[in-house]
């Protein structure tokens, strides 16, 4: 997996998140797909595997915990990183207990997320 | 509006000293709340300046926090100075209502050409423009001359500073602790907040063992023959506590008010300085002070600095404030 590009999925119903994260994460050559609709994101995930899924925790139809459960049920290697926009320490703790790799709180810089993704990538390569 | 101090302590005559302590405590909270608003503004500016990922919730939460802190400021101001407090609350309500209408209920209700504080065209993401406009709502300017939160903060300071000055009127203090030496012109009341009530002291400045300090505090001028000349009357009130130092000077000269806390918790420590001073206050301040001009004089404050720097700043301020208006300097 040393030279393989990472396939990263970003799910957030706030347009600004995917719009700003996509170019920032693609700078390192990884393949990034962004979704505002979690249902469409999971359909896409069922079609093709992703190494890393970055998802907001609080979304209207399907929340981040459901995304986490769906992804881990379909792929034991995918790392799920949770984005929290609210003071949701309890929910973040729940997410970690359910197998999320890590969580990151908004507002954050793309470089903060990049650091978490690199940590996840190291585990994927191990 | 009935004085809130009297409401807080029922069943007994409120002593002036208790008022003094409550006023200091409230003023400290007032500064903390003003500082929190400034920190929120700085945080918002950073989010705007750098490539942060944030959503609408961050912006609405910023508005909520500023409104909440401003409400606390209004409360602090009215506790310190009850008279005329309605105007403070009215302005706060007006700003709060505008924030709800313009930011919380819906999207930014401003003309497209209004970019907020940003001087350059913003990226098209609505959250960025909303944040920029919200920061304008706090620090200005707003379209059509609408009031901004900074107007409110200025008004709060303009409201409380005269009340604090009046509260430290020497005649009121004299009554407060029943001064035993009423004929001393140059005097300093020393109030130890940790001491038992009734232990307050009155110092004749001419009796201060440290002669240079005594002469500086009286504003004495050297006559060239080694004997000082006292050409003005000064009154000083020093308030000391475990973590606090306050010095209020008034009299024939200009007024000075210094409030400082040094608890060791960087986030909570501050120096606040108000002076009616003939020269620019900024010219005598150590680095790191924010300066604001008010209708009553200039005020400056510094916070979030390490204890050692705080001590150095106080030391330099003391030397400049107390020496600058007399000929007594290092020669004594």
Keywords:
heterodimer; A: 126 residues; alpha/beta; Rossmann fold; five-stranded parallel sheet; 5 helices; B: 332 residues; alpha+beta; eight-stranded mixed sheet; two-stranded antiparallel sheet; 9 helices; 45% helix; 15% strand; disordered N terminus; disordered C terminus
Largest sheet of chain A: 5 strands, parallel
Count of DSSP strands of chain B: 10
Q: Low-confidence spans of chain A: pLDDT under 50, at least 5 residues?
A: none
Secondary-structure element order of chain A, N to C: EHEHEHEHEH
CATH fold annotation of chain A: Rossmann fold
Beta-strand content of chain B:
15-25%
Output the helix-strand order of chain B. Answer: HHHHHHHEEHEEEEEEEEH
Supply the number of structural domains of chain B.
2
Helix/strand/pairing class of chain A, anyone?
alpha/beta
Radius of gyration of chain A: 13 Å
What CATH architecture of chain A do you see? Answer: 3-Layer(aba) Sandwich
Count of alpha/pi helices of chain B: 9
Give the helix proportion of chain B (percent range): 40-55%
Report the helical percentage of chain A: 40-55%
What's the shape of chain A?
globular
Residue-averaged pLDDT of chain B: 73
The two chains with the largest interface, and their residue counts, are: A-B, 17 and 14 residues
